[in-house]
């Protein structure tokens, strides 16, 4: 898979399992690219082991405020905190005997999801999307653009011509265009019926994002600048038309606070793409299904369905463009011991 600045031939993740003395567990997983997060799975594992594990030993994991207070003794935000937040929430949901979506909000048991077309040659991308639509029945797609203005427009035009008006199209430039290029592309995308233009150009400083929010003929969806509730508040104030909320990046608590902010300001939100395997994807999909507010934009975690290997059992399938989420408690999946032994590297080594 080809993303902005990263070509993947394998998926390296950090998998966190929190275990109590009574053998209750909570799981979380994240693919941490240094180019995106400033860290790696190995560094994050070290952070969890050396900084956070000592703070949490002896703390009741069901006491959410106590665990947060312990974790927040290390100042600042980090992917390790987000992983801990998800794993501990999963543990509490399992203890309550509730699916995570029910524990969080309980709106739905399924999630509509979009296909994801990453970068690559135009013909390859069309073929990839055709296979995904035929296999999974997708009715929506997120297309990665941002490499070459006219080629990107041509790809979207080909997708529209091939799949017709019934396919919802959203695009993501990963902030690769200049402001002028983004405005030019937005004009063309508007003619093709594209619904959202994610991160068309760098959304900092604020003057730049206010300008693209004002000029773009396609509603702009903000992603990369969202790393806190305050950043979300500023982006909404500056005129964002939609927000991408990534529970895997933010943790469920911060993600939900941003979701509430979006509701208050009538700003649509999407459970955004992190390209996760099953555990990480289910954190986002369960979050999406928990709340009515996410109903207007399909969730973006669909890549897990095409991965050849995983380390869990009970992975849900995508049919008719939807995932029926597991009925089991928490995230709804359990670790596959054999697969974990085959693919996993325990930390510390």
- Overall outline: globular
Total individual domains? 2
Sequence of strands across the biggest β-sheet:
6-7-8-9-10-11-12
Q: How far apart are the first and last residues' alpha carbons, in Å?
A: 29 Å
The major beta sheet can be summarized as: 7 strands, parallel
Helix fraction?
40-55%
Using DSSP, what is the number of strands?
16
Helix/sheet category:
alpha/beta
Short description:
This is Mandelate racemase/muconate lactonizing enzyme C-terminal domain-containing protein. It contains 14 helices and 16 strands.
Textual characterization of the structure:
It is built from 14 helices and 16 strands. By secondary structure, it is α/β, with parallel strands linked by helices. It folds into two domains: 97 residues, Enolase-like, N-terminal domain (Enolase-like, domain 1), CATH 3.30.390.10; 231 residues, Enolase-like C-terminal domain (TIM Barrel, Alpha-Beta Barrel), CATH 3.20.20.120. It has a seven-stranded parallel β-sheet with strand order 6-7-8-9-10-11-12. Strands 5-15-14 form a three-stranded antiparallel β-sheet. It is globular, with a radius of gyration of 20 Å.
Name its key features.
43% helix, TIM Barrel, 349 residues, 3-stranded antiparallel sheet, Enolase-like, domain 1
Write the layout of secondary structure elements.
Layout (H helix, E strand, L loop, with lengths): L1 E2 L2 E2 L6 E6 L5 E6 L3 H4 L3 H16 L7 H8 L7 H18 L3 H5 L5 E3 L2 E3 L4 H15 L3 E5 L4 H15 L4 E5 L6 H13 L4 E3 L7 H10 L4 E3 L6 H10 L3 E4 L1 H4 L1 H13 L4 E3 L6 H13 L21 E2 L4 E2 L2 E3 L9 E2 L1 H7 L6
Parallel strand pairs: 6-7, 7-8, 8-9, 9-10, 10-11, 11-12
Antiparallel strand pairs: 1-2, 3-4, 5-15, 13-16, 14-15
